[in-house]
Input
Amino acid sequence: QVQLVESGGGLVQAGGSLRLSCAASGGTFGSYVMGWFRQAPGKEREFVAGISRSGHWTAYADAVKGRFTISRDNAKNTVALQMNSLKPEDMAVYYCAADLNPSIGVRTSEPLYDLWGQGTQVTVSS
Output
């Protein structure tokens, strides 16, 4: 049974940075496309960033392009989200997710992701 566990959330001032990490266990991490999603209070969960199995391709939501960077380490079974220049509107619960479909590309639709972590809270104060 594959498990995803996020860490690294917390409270940061606007303009600051945080680095989220997601550790996978129990599966073949290198065969999964990985994604980060977020859900703010009263809003639907939305795609933030995704990375291909090799790490060669990435995709970002327009709202975070140029500020967030997704990366992965297949040897360590981890995926990270470096978040810079944080804004109050980035405040949300952030989820790590795995897409088990063997397609090459990074998919951005939430229903296509098969496995989810429990989420980690990111709070940005203005």
Notes: Residues 15 and 85 are 4 Å apart (CA to CA).
